[in-house]
Design goal:
Blueprint lengths: L1 E4 H6 L1 H9 L4 E5 L2 E6 L2 H8 L4 H6 L25
Parallel strand pairs: 1-2
Antiparallel strand pairs: 2-3
């Protein structure tokens, strides 16, 4: 993945967009910090449609007995805690 300083990305935006469309993302840095990533619109749509972890859990096709119940250990008392 190519990295470009913001000032250089401004000067070569057309080439950076061409690389993104070709499948090579570009990281844009400002003052040495990674600030943004330039990707193709197709890649952005693919990433934006990814389901959340909650959606994946809600879509689980199993029945309640399919997943074993997890036995919890009793909580330990905090050191020095007044009860």
């Amino acid at each position: 993945m190519k990295e470009l300083q913001l000032k250089d990305a401004k000067a070569t935006l057309s080439a950076a967009v061409d690389r993104a469309v070709a499948g090579e993302p570009t990281v844009i840095t400002r003052y040495g910090r990674k600030e943004a990533v330039l990707v193709s619109f197709e890649e952005w749509e693919r990433l934006a449609k990814a389901p959340s972890f909650a959606d994946l859990l809600l879509a689980f096709p199993g029945k309640p007995g399919d997943v074993p119940v997890r036995r919890r250990k009793p909580a330990r008392a905090l050191r020095g805690a007044a009860l």
